Amino acid sequence: MTPDDLDALAERMVPVGMRVVGAVHDEGVGAIARILAPLDSQERVALIVVLGAMVDPERPVSELLGWVDWDGAPAHLLTLFGGAPVVDDLSTNPRQWSDMACHELAKRHRRVPTPDQTIADTERNAQGYKEWDRRRHQRERDHNRRRR
Prior knowledge:
Elements: H1 3-27, H2 29-36, H3 41-53, H4 61-64, H5 75-80, H6 99-110, H7 119-147
Helix pairs in contact: 1-2, 1-3, 6-7
């Protein structure tokens, strides 16, 4: 490949990289897999370079990953490492639910309801979605406060 070809490839990977960032933050491992599936090995390498270029090397790792709470890591990040979200036997208080459970319920809330889905399931999914959104906004506020 010529340098111009490499530049063009990198440019094509920028929107793909932005989709990966969105999927990591909000959608989960399934969305990441769907984004990566059509890419060949050369495009994947270019994507890694583009994603690396999107990171400010002057920022500390604690700031770059400030939105992640590894103790209560978002469910979609844990599924990358083999964890499975548990949504059975949850307390009635959504603030006591794990991030994994909230994220799983939020994903279910965004899907089209199935005919066998009960009203209680629908309400629990909505609670999980609201709690996940509240925590996401709190993480963003905390991250922004640390940057000041």
